[in-house]
Automatic annotation (TrEMBL):
Pfam families: HD_5. Residues 113-309 form the HD-GYP domain. This is HD-GYP domain-containing protein. SMART domains: HDc. It comes from the Bacteria. SUPFAM superfamilies: HD-domain/PDEase-like (SSF109604). CDD domains: HDc. The lineage of its organism: Bacteria, Bacillati, Bacillota, Bacilli, Bacillales. Signal peptide: none annotated.
Length: 351
């Protein structure tokens, strides 16, 4: 980024005048400092808060490379649309026992790709966190997050489409489990937990019994709870026998489950989730996939409003490549480097 000294008053005025036009635009190139630190990552949809951030830090407008998007294209609305669609598809599968794959590919998959095309971290999380309809939102959430990971890993278009389908259908086996168990507010009994774990095998059977679906989709339904160290289920297989798509979906599945409100628990604090993801990259989850995921998700959070664990509110200013879960925060004009404040963390994103 060019020297971020004070810009001319006319430029500041221009920024304020054009704020309405900037909001809703897609940043098509990373906004970076002279040292290469990403301030706002590529593909971010600019909010008014981003514009205010740009104004406060006197960033010249000519550094922004933008693409205008339709005003009604928001992650929340897209995720709501996909959730309603998958609800109907799950109802169909309960009645028929097979997947209406043509409907999935013609309606849900394009919607998920659209949501993954214009992501901001807050909009992704806020659209996916409601505890109502968790089973349906979880499938959509894992679909969106897996698609983002696939993009970051530079999968081909064909593989990305297959991954999105597999991720969106990863939990179809739950149609064979009673809603009373799925939505139970308390702890499962041993018998109930054993039944819940069978959803992976049920999903594999359902997909294999549906003509026209690639076998890799069935394997993701079967393997998304397997772990690199062999301590997953249903078969306890190790890293060399788990498919690459299953490894990606496992990362998305863990993240969405931890950041979601459930009938029996609140969402985990943001810093705990991200630190747990990094911890799981040592043995449980694929290390490269997991580390790419954490780094890119944190880059997506730049500019987001947060509440810290001491109650203060601030905004994520920059992410440090070597320690992405401890970014720098601007809180009431105080610069806080979380790498140097070991007892202070991000509790939650608020906008």
């Amino acid at each position: 980024m060019r020297a971020a000294g004070k810009i001319e008053a006319s430029m500041a005025g221009e920024l304020r005048m054009n704020a309405t036009n900037l909001v809703g635009s897609k940043l098509i190139k990373d906004l970076v400092t002279e040292n290469g630190v990403v301030l706002i990552p590529c593909n971010t949809i600019l909010t008014r808060e981003h514009v205010e951030f740009i104004d406060r830090h006197h960033i010249p407008l000519d550094l922004l490379e933008l693409e205008r998007l339709p005003r009604d294209m928001t992650n929340e609305s897209l995720i709501f649309k996909a959730t309603e669609e998958i609800r109907e598809i799950f109802h169909y599968m309960r009645r028929r026992g097979t997947v209406p794959i043509e409907e999935v590919q013609s309606s849900i998959i394009p919607t998920i790709h659209q949501a993954a095309e214009y992501p901001t971290l807050y909009s992704v999380l806020s659209g996916l966190q409601a505890k109502d309809d968790y089973t349906y939102r979880h499938n959509i959430g894992v679909g969106v997050i897996s698609t983002l990971i696939g993009k970051w890993l530079k999968l081909s278009e064909a593989d990305l489409g297959l991954l999105t389908t597999a991720a969106t259908l990863h939990d179809v086996g739950k149609i064979r489990i009673d809603d009373d168990i799925l939505n139970k507010p308390g702890k499962y009994t041993d018998e109930e937990y054993s039944l819940m774990k069978r959803h992976a095998e049920f999903g594999y059977e359902i997909i294999c019994n549906t003509p026209g679906i690639d076998h890799q989709v069935a394997l993701v339904a079967l393997q998304h709870h397997e772990r690199e160290d062999g301590k997953g289920y249903p078969y306890g297989i190790t890293e060399n026998r788990i498919t690459y798509f299953s490894k990606i979906v496992a990362v998305a599945d863990v993240f969405h489950a931890m950041t979601s409100k459930r009938v029996y628990k609140e969402a985990s604090p943001f810093y705990q989730v991200m630190q747990q993801m990094l911890s799981d990259s040592f043995g449980r989850l694929h290390p490269v996939i997991c580390n790419v995921f954490v780094q890119r998700m944190m880059e997506m959070s730049v500019g987001s409003e947060v509440t810290l664990t001491d109650g203060r509110k601030g905004r994520i200013l920059m992410v440090h490549p070597g320690d992405p879960v401890n970014p720098s925060i601007l809180a009431a004009d105080e610069y806080i480097d979380l790498r140097k404040n070991h007892h202070l963390h991000i509790d939650r994103l608020t906008r």
